Amino acid sequence: LLTFPSPGIRDLWQGIHDVYVPDGRYDAGATRTNRKEAERVVGIVFEHMRNRPAGESLGVVALSRPQADLIERLVDERRIMERNVEERFKERPDEPFFVKNLENVQGDERDHMIISIGYGPTVESGAVPNRFGPLNTEGGERRLNVVISRAKQRVDLVHSLRASDIHSQQEGARLLRRYLEYAAN
């Protein structure tokens, strides 16, 4: 599994950045989302829109559809509150800002990608069930490879679980564990 962008780049902004959300909880029984993690993703989106150079494209990928839907709703709500960055969301019609789930990101590349794992310790027990949606199905490893290779310059990997929480022997889950280890180190 090759990871991009290269860690050899000297610009500290570029590369893979590990964003651990220690208080994030996955609501497995009801919404199937991780609100704290989604809020952190939205914070990174608006930080990008306020501070990065004009024309630098941005995309968000969540491993599940419910998590992507929550992130998109929270971004839309914040856009209403922070109109001063609205033009940044429209400046690249050739590479517009997007929020997508794992299954819908094929072929989309952006300068900066934010990946939301979403899964993690549950609200009810704090345990981490090793159910990772499409990653646990046959071909899940290919889906993960597509997601982690969409960035041209920077990846922010936002997660509430640690690599050591993943015990599944499914190939996609095993590679997710390895990618989390890589990002953390």
Explain how this protein is built.
The chain has 185 residues and is an alpha/beta fold. Helix content is 31%, strand content 17%. It has 4 helices and 5 strands. Strands 1-5-4-2-3 form a 5-stranded parallel beta sheet, with helices on both faces. Helix 1 packs across helix 2 (65-81) and helix 3 packs parallel to helix 4. The radius of gyration is 16 Å and the shape is globular. The mean pLDDT is 91.
Summarize this structure as a short list of keywords or feature phrases.
185 residues, alpha/beta, five-stranded parallel β-sheet, 5 strands
- The number of distinct helices, counting runs of at least 4 residues, comes to 4
Mean model confidence by pLDDT: 91
Order of helices and strands: EHEHEEHEH
Q: What's the shape?
A: globular
- Strand arrangement within the widest β-sheet reads 1-5-4-2-3
Structural class: alpha/beta
What is the terminal separation in angstroms?
Answer: 16 Å
Strand content: 15-25%
Stretches with pLDDT under 50, minimum 5 residues: none
Describe the sheet with the most strands. 5 strands, parallel
What's this, in brief?
The chain is an alpha/beta fold and 185 residues long.
Helix-strand layout with pairing:
Elements: E1 15-20, H1 35-51, E2 58-62, H2 65-81, E3 98-101, E4 110-116, H3 140-148, E5 151-159, H4 171-184
Parallel strand pairs: 1-5, 2-3, 2-4, 4-5
